[in-house]
Write a structure and sequence with these properties.
- With 347 residues, the protein is of the alpha/beta class.
- It contains 14 helices and 13 strands.
- It has a seven-stranded mixed sheet, sandwiched between helices. A three-stranded antiparallel sheet has the order 8-9-10, with no helix packed on it.
- α1 runs parallel beside α2.
- The longest helix is centred in the middle third of the chain and has 17 residues.
């Protein structure tokens, strides 16, 4: 698999336009921390060999607490990796058991204690809206994260995925169903607490101290191009999207034949408009009316303003000069609002 990943990196060099600099390298999707530091270095070295990489590149690895031994953390700190994204999810045992996480509460605390000694740039994931999670326990979760001084926190509402243990437990009545009202309460507490602590709520699920916004996340939400390497990985260049085959064996065999194991979709103008509206409304940068008019045309701008008006009247959206953004009241509903602004009948 490592050989195949490195080969795909080499084969896709032509997709990067001349003079384009790599600003971020992100090891995510699944659990990349199961790779040895030597294997990670192999992949990073191939990127440096075949691409122009920024001097202040952000290199992140996603990791679960049970993968981060002290030895692993020290080795990562001595490599080019300069940012950790740790899937804490919760500091409480009952939440981790309910979500069927591999780590326990003690491992969550221990790994952060070690990581903060060796890394300055750390992000953690937390989940809210968990059944039986009280307001007090959610506040304790946030406070524990703050006590460790992490400069970036990503938070997501619990979703009930099919074919997992959670919907079966809900069906049997062993735990209560996920409650949207509770999730919204947790979200509002989260926003208020973190903003009071100097975090900026720069994207719906992401909070960062100044100078600690994720370059990877920011690039995605601002519509920059990215290359996705590996099985199931997606790529985007503004005009088209591609995705790799989701079968490991077929992925490796295709690359052994010097072929790329992907499919490509050409995005219509409407696709591009919808994507920009969706990503823009999730961020502090909002949606630029000028950009809509310049890149998509006056018809799209008129449609956007017409669809936005009822949300403006309900104080869910606001127009500040050229920029359309969600209000504090509208943040939790931003994905639903965006879908109401989508266009489906233009080419």
């Amino acid at each position: 698999m490592i050989v195949a990943l490195c080969h795909e990196i080499k084969l896709r060099r032509s997709e990067i336009v001349e003079n384009q600099i790599i600003e971020t390298i992100y090891f995510g999707g699944g659990t990349p921390s199961v790779l040895s530091v030597h294997e990670l270095k192999q992949i990073i070295n191939i990127i440096y060999t075949h691409y122009a990489v920024s001097d202040d590149v952000e290199i992140t690895i996603e990791a679960n607490p049970d993968d981060l031994s002290e030895e692993k953390i020290v080795a990562l700190a001595q490599s080019k990796v300069n940012r950790l994204s740790i899937g804490i999810q919760s500091f409480f045992e009952e939440d981790l058991v309910l979500m069927n996480r591999a780590h326990n509460a003690k491992e969550a605390i221990n790994c952060l204690s070690l990581a903060t000694h060796h890394f300055d740039n750390i992000s953690i994931d937390l989940i809210y809206g968990i059944p039986n999670m009280s307001i007090d326990r959610w506040k304790q979760n946030i406070q524990l994260a703050l006590d460790f001084g992490v400069p970036h926190i990503s938070c997501y509402a619990l979703t009930v995925e099919p074919n997992t243990a959670l919907p079966k437990l809900i069906e049997k009545g062993e735990i209560p169903p996920v409650n949207d009202t509770t999730a919204q309460q947790h979200f509002e507490i989260l926003v208020e607490t973190l903003e009071n602590e100097g975090f900026e709520h720069y994207e719906l699920s992401n909070f960062g101290k100044p100078n600690y916004f994720s370059k990877n996340n920011t690039a995605y939400w601002q519509g920059k191009s990215y290359l996705g390497i590996g099985p199931s990985a997606h790529s985007y260049n503004g005009k088209q999207r591609s995705w790799n085959i989701n079968n490991n064996t077929k992925y490796i065999k295709t690359l052994q034949q010097n072929k790329l194991p992907n499919e490509i979709e050409i995005l219509t103008t409407t696709d591009q408009y919808n994507e920009y509206v969706m990503t823009g409304l999730r961020t502090i940068w909002g949606v630029s009316l000028q950009k809509i008019a310049q890149e998509f045309g006056a018809t799209y701008q008129e449609y956007l303003l017409k669809q936005a008006q009822k949300h403006i009247n309900e104080h869910l959206l606001f127009l500040d000069g050229d920029t359309l953004s969600v209000t504090k009241k509208g943040k939790f509903l931003s994905d639903g609002i965006a879908s109401d602004l989508f266009l489906v009948n233009l080419g």
